[in-house]
Structure formats: C-alpha cells, structure tokens
Amino acid sequence: MFNPGGGSMNKMIKQAKKMQEQIAKMQAELEERELEISSGGGAVTVVINGKQELASIKISPEVIDPDDVEMLEDLIMAAVNEGVRQSQEMVSSEMAKITGGLNIPGL
Fold it and tell me: What is the C-alpha separation between 42 and 59, in angstroms, rounded?
C-alpha cells in the first residue's frame, strides 16, 4: 500500500508525544522549584514557586512604620513583581530547552 509521507507523519507524532511528556515532567519539576527575592536590602523577602504562586513572605520588623505604610507596600510589590518575573523567566527558559525555541501556542 502506498503511503506518501506516512513515515514522516508517524515520526512527527512520536516526537510531539515525547515533547508533551517532557513538558509535563518539566512542569511538575518547576512546581517544586522556588525562587527567593528580596527588596529594600532584604527588608522584604518573598518566595515564589514555578507556578508563579507566592509561597511565603517575610518582613523585617524595622520596616514596619505605621506612619509610612506606602513604603512597605512598595517594597512588597517590588519583591513580588520581581519574583513573578524571575519565575516566568525560569519557566520560559526550561520550556525552550524542550521545544527548541518553537513557538507553541498555549505553552
């Protein structure tokens, strides 16, 4: 039976399935990774995981000033935003290792 391109299609399907398995494994591993980010010279420290979830936050008592709540809010926001950015960068970097830089929608 003549099957033009059938062999390469099967090969492509196998490669896609292997890539899908690698991505699932990588996502599970990234969920376990954590990044620790500080702002204000260590006044606020956050831990963000590979799912871009805030795992913990620590605030030095020295920066808790009831007369300057805005400064503390800014430090927290800066640490969380940087943590999310670094977590997204980590995920993108790991994904590129698997996909070889292919732009796959939804990943």
Answer: 8
The DSSP element (H or E) to which 56 belongs, if any, is strand 54-59
Measured between alpha carbons, how far is 69 from 5 in angstroms, rounded to an integer?
66
Distance CA 99, CA 73 (A): 38
Any idea which residue has 């033009």 for tokens? 4
Query: What count of residues does the chain have?
Result: 107
The CATH class given to the 6-99 domain equals: alpha beta
**pTM (global) more than 0.85:** no
* C-alpha distances in Å from residue 91, one per residue of 6, 28, 29, 77, 85: 34, 11, 10, 21, 10
The segments of the chain whose pLDDT lies below 70 read 1-6, 101-107
